[in-house]
Design brief:
TIM Barrel; 2 domains; six-stranded parallel β-sheet; four-stranded antiparallel β-sheet; 12 helices; 44% helix
Length: 313
């Protein structure tokens, strides 16, 4: 299997984040129920006071900037669950222009207003992440490097889906689905008297290969990268093997790739760069030929997408 296909196999789980997936649907239902119950509490006292007749109404959600939409599947489901009729004017992962209508909702006025902020919170956050992910993915057109999220999320699966809709990779969903050996794991082995913690950690992790999507190890030194690749080669594992080059400069990465190739180890592990990667320097990393760059920035620093819900009836 070529490296591009291995990257997709290891890092991309976005297609699982659909309401047709019962596990995801259950999580979405719990998420929205919690948000709704906490926000509504004993009732929307403002709407009860002002909208005494609670007539049928209509509202439109408009984009106040151009970008890529994310979260329509989830928010439409939420609105419908609470008795509103939803008509979408665009779709997830589609581009929308400033001033265009995203969706239209029909139903009792109180219900529309009770769900307004929850729906906006999700759509604004997801669309912001999706838009920024698409922008960075477009910056890397012409390079083989792919963009991935990290576990630095606020809305967990919703953030991961937003990255997917923008053309990015989801990476692992949580601690349970794949193995990522980090510096603290290696340090613990050192304190236990293990002389070669990189080799030992990978060997121990390999016993769980049938339970995970991939096995990855985070390293900071070239010698450790070589040792990791050599261990992966010797073990011949059936799942993708990944070396994360943490806080490495583009020059460091170029040298590591050159060395791995010279020692016939390059084909035994995917390479991921993470740490201090920004929109300003991401192209420099892509030029190295690194397989994946992972950015916490995508989900902890993307700006909220500007949109507003307007009652028109």
């Amino acid at each position: 299997m070529d490296r591009a296909k291995l990257v997709e196999l290891a890092y991309q789980k976005g297609k699982e984040l659909t309401l047709n997936n019962r596990i995801y649907l259950n999580w979405i239902e719990e998420f929205f129920d919690r948000e709704y119950n906490e926000d509504l509490g004993l009732g929307d006292i403002t709407s009860e006071a002002i909208l005494t007749k609670n007539k049928l109404g209509r509202a439109i959600l408009k984009a106040k900037q151009s970008g890529i939409i994310g979260g329509l599947e989830e928010v439409s489901w939420f609105y419908k669950k609470h008795g509103l009729k939803v008509e979408t004017r665009t779709g997830d992962a589609e581009e929308i222009k400033k001033g265009n209508t995203i969706l239209e909702v029909h139903g009792k006025r109180r219900a529309i207003l009770a769900m307004e902020r929850i729906g906006l919170n999700v759509l604004q956050r997801m669309s912001g992440i999706t838009t920024e992910t698409r922008r960075l993915a477009n910056l890397l057109k012409g390079y083989s490097t792919r963009i991935a999220a990290t576990r630095k999320t606020h809305l967990r699966y919703l953030d991961k889906k937003a990255v997917f809709l923008g053309g990015g990779l989801t990476h692992r969903f949580g601690l349970w689905d794949s193995i990522l050996i980090k510096d603290n794991h290696l340090e613990a082995l050192k304190r236990d008297g293990i002389r070669n913690p990189v080799e030992k950690a990978i060997t121990l992790a390999s016993q769980f290969v049938d339970r995970v999507g991939f096995i990855e190890i985070e390293i900071t030194e070239q010698d450790d990268a070589i040792e990791a690749a050599r261990t992966f080669k010797e073990l011949t594992l059936t799942k993708p093997c990944i070396i994360m080059l943490d806080n490495s400069t583009p020059n460091d990465i170029e040298q590591i790739i050159k060395t791995l190739k010279s020692e016939n180890l390059y084909g035994y592990a995917l390479l991921e760069a993470s740490g201090n990667i920004t929109p300003e320097n991401i192209k420099e990393y892509a030029k190295t030929g690194i397989d994946v760059v992972s950015l916490g920035y995508l989900t902890h620093s993307a700006r909220s997408f500007d949109m507003s819900l307007e009652m028109i009836l």
